[in-house]
Write a structure and sequence with these properties.
Elements: H1 10-43, H2 46-77, H3 81-113, H4 121-147, H5 150-180, H6 185-217
């Protein structure tokens, strides 16, 4: 930040920096929860799944705190132009991150239900790879938001298509798995819901990237985000 970028009231700058710091911390917690949930599924690690579930209230609390601080800043400072866009972008990004935290929690809950004897290794591995990609999308989207990096934000938007295609391929594979034996239906249904949660987490990473574009340019993306067609059977 150059001296010309500083506000006359330096405490306003500190408030904005603190707001972004809270959001970055929230992003770190959410990314870790998503990855932990995926690893718990692949290794049927109930202790890790329980840790993800137990950590969700902290994510909720930090999201609520971020929203409250953003609303307070708007009321006290009445920001305009780019400062207003920053506060709004933080509020929307915090919401998206909280939703991803919920998806991680839901995945962990389903991991606890899937029996350790269920043959889910290959599908669980695919879900873990999806989660790794989505976590990287979240990290990049946050970097794009902080740095006002439009090129990085656009790259995140395009990568959402990869997540959609992985989900569609997995959906078809799970359908075949269910058809092989009735005992596969229960585990496959849980895996499908977990995969869908990860795919939706990718949508929220993309939404944060779109907030980065809004913040940098003052306008939302003109073109719709690329989406894969729904899986057909």
């Amino acid at each position: 930040m150059t001296p010309s970028d500083l506000h006359i009231v330096s405490s306003f700058d500190r408030d904005l920096e603190a707001l972004q710091a809270h959001l970055s911390r929230l992003s770190g917690l959410v990314e870790a929860a998503l990855l932990d949930a995926a690893h718990a599924l692949e290794g049927h690690d109930i202790a890790t799944a329980d840790r993800v579930i137990a950590g969700d209230p902290a994510i909720d609390a930090l999201e609520d705190f971020s929203q409250t601080e953003a609303a307070s800043l708007m009321a006290r400072r009445a920001p305009t132009a780019v400062d207003l866009r920053l506060v709004l972008a933080v509020m929307r990004a915090a919401y998206s991150l909280e939703r991803v935290g919920d998806y991680a929690k839901n995945a962990a809950k389903r991991t606890r239900v899937i029996g350790p004897g269920a043959t889910v290794d290959s599908h669980a591995g695919t879900i873990r790879r999806m989660a790794v990609l989505v976590a990287q999308m979240l990290e990049d989207a946050m970097q794009a938001l902080v740095r006002r990096d439009t090129a990085l934000a656009e790259a995140v938007r395009k990568r959402d298509l990869d997540i959609d295609e992985m989900y569609n391929t997995l959906f078809r594979s799970l359908f075949t798995y269910m058809m092989e034996s009735p005992v596969n239906i229960g585990p496959a249904m849980h895996l499908h819901f977990i995969a869908k949660n990860v795919e939706r987490a990718g949508d929220h990473a993309t939404a944060i990237a779109e907030q980065a574009l809004y913040l940098a340019t003052g306008t939302p993306p003109a073109d719709p985000r690329p989406k894969a067609e729904a899986p057909g059977l």
